[in-house]
Design a protein that fits this description.
By secondary structure, the protein is of the alpha+beta class. The protein has two domains: 29 residues; 33 residues. It is built from two helices and four strands; from the N terminus they run H-E-E-E-E-H. A two-stranded antiparallel ribbon has the order 1-2. Strands 3-4 form a two-stranded antiparallel sheet. The longest helix has 31 residues.
Length: 75
């Protein structure tokens, strides 16, 4: 009975130690994570390449990755 009690105490201490270690690791990962926001990606109507929406060139038939692709698709 004494060994069972010691084993139980050991398992509780081991669980607490692992739980504390996992919390510390997750805090470090959250701290080191990049703070950049999510960027909406759109495909080019000519070649299909995806690029950030704020860098896309607006045309009458869609969004393009460059002015050359817009001119090629929209004469």
């Amino acid at each position: 009975m004494k060994f069972l009690l010691l084993f139980f105490i050991f398992m509780v201490l081991l669980w607490q130690w692992r739980h504390a270690r996992e919390q510390k690791v997750s805090q470090v990962k959250r701290k080191n994570a990049p703070a950049a926001g999510v960027v909406n990606m759109v495909p080019c109507a000519h070649c299909g390449m995806h690029l950030p929406a704020n860098e896309a060139v607006q045309g009458t038939k869609g969004l393009y990755c460059s002015a050359a692709h817009r001119q090629a698709r929209e004469p």
